[in-house]
Amino acid sequence: xxTLKLEIVTPEGIRCSEDVDMVTLPGAEGEMGxxxxxxxxxxxxxxxxxxxxxxxxxFGFAVGPGFVEITGERVAVLTDVAINADxxxxxxxxxxEEAAERRLRDRLGSEEAAVVNAAVIHSLEHLRVRRRxx
Length: 134
What we know:
This protein has two helices and ten strands. It has about 130 residues and is of the alpha+beta class. Helix 1 runs antiparallel to helix 2. The two termini are about 30 Å apart.
């Protein structure tokens, strides 16, 4: 059976480099599934979950915004953050969410509020992924 090479790269380095059977991505226009021999595509991804099938098992990463290049043999994801769903620490995510919400309540400037709001969305997505996996 044909496979895809899934590569997820963040500023910290390569988070995933696996031969997989199928990948599901949180695209800007909605969730998309990618199988081997997919039509070449370059698009944005939004914060969400990348899942992939390998040997009949499902794995996942919570990701931030980024870009994905798809070819018939490869799915290359470039994102600011990627956290393996099995490694996500629910307590840390919840604490980060609460801290960000407190800062928003302190009436921050619009630019800083936007940054904090993005952090809240990011933390909530990680928490959602973790809860779904367990």
